[in-house]
């Protein structure tokens, strides 16, 4: 209890500049922890949705039926994201272009691939949300804390110049409060850096899965497009 009280006293007795640095670091730490929790929940839900959609997609269900099921959920107010959103963008564009008899199979599938690439970019933006902030907190917090420490030590030595007797007890409180700023900088930076590295790896995993799905789905669309154009020529 005494250690907690002494730490609180150091913060309260610090100079205005050092207190401002501590407040900035505290705000950055609280915000980064909120974003970390939000990203963890988002990635967990996205991973579950992706596995559920892949299982349904590769179960042999008719793609048009799968698309209609998605339409029904959208009509009920659901928001479709992730891999299913990419599928819906590609299938919608494929269905639209396939009705144009003057387009060959290659052009139809390439149009669907463009639509899926755009949808993939949107999903990547959602996955990377808040990561730049975590990177900024991780890279700048130690320097902000170091600034507070340097300022606090300068303030302490200025007070020492006016003292009649220079002792460790004279400068220790000022140096201690200054070092608290460095500790807070590290406290804000370390979780942000660890979370950023973890989330960046998770984003890479999602992006690779999305790209693989686009290639696999494009192969299916190629077969359907050539079969459709073949039936059109027969008629």
UniProtKB/TrEMBL annotation:
Residues passing through the membrane, by range: 16-36, 131-154, 174-196
Any Pfam family hit: MotA_ExbB
GO cellular component: plasma membrane
Domain MotA/TolQ/ExbB proton channel: 83-211
Role, per record: Part of the Tol-Pal system, which plays a role in outer membrane invagination during cell division and is important for maintaining outer membrane integrity.
Signal peptide bounds: none
InterPro entries, per the entry: ExbB/TolQ_transport, MotA_ExbB_proton_chnl, Tol-Pal_TolQ
Main location: membrane
Localization in the cell: Cell inner membrane; Cell membrane
GO BP of this protein: bacteriocin transport; cell division; protein import
Membrane topology: Multi-pass membrane protein
Subunit composition and interactions: The Tol-Pal system is composed of five core proteins: the inner membrane proteins TolA, TolQ and TolR, the periplasmic protein TolB and the outer membrane protein Pal. They form a network linking the inner and outer membranes and the peptidoglycan layer.
Protein name: Tol-Pal system protein TolQ
Family: Belongs to the ExbB/TolQ family.
Keywords: Cell cycle, Cell division, Cell inner membrane, Cell membrane, Membrane, Transmembrane, Transmembrane helix
């Amino acid at each position: 209890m005494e250690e907690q009280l002494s730490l609180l006293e150091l913060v309260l007795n610090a100079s205005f500049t050092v207190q401002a640095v501590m407040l900035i670091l505290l705000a950055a730490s609280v915000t980064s922890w909120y974003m970390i929790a939000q990203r963890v929940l988002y990635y967990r839900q996205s991973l579950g949705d992706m596995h559920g959609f892949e299982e349904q997609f590769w179960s042999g269900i008719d793609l048009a039926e799968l698309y209609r099921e998605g339409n029904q959920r959208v009509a009920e107010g659901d928001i479709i994201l992730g891999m299913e959103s990419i599928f819906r963008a590609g299938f919608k564009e494929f269905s639209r272009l396939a009705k144009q008899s003057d387009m060959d199979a290659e052009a139809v599938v390439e149009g669907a691939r463009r639509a899926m690439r755009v949808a993939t970019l949107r999903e990547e933006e959602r996955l990377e949300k808040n990561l730049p902030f975590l990177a900024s907190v991780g890279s700048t917090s130690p320097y902000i804390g170091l600034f507070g420490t340097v300022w606090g030590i300068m303030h302490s030595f200025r007070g020492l110049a006016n003292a009649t007797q220079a002792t460790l007890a004279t400068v220790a409180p000022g140096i201690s409060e200054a070092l608290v700023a460095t500790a807070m900088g590290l406290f804000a930076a370390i979780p942000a850096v660890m979370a950023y590295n973890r989330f960046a790896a998770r984003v890479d995993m999602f992006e690779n899965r999305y790209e693989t799905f686009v290639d696999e789905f494009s192969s299916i669309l190629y077969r359907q497009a050539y079969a459709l154009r073949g039936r059109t020529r027969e008629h």
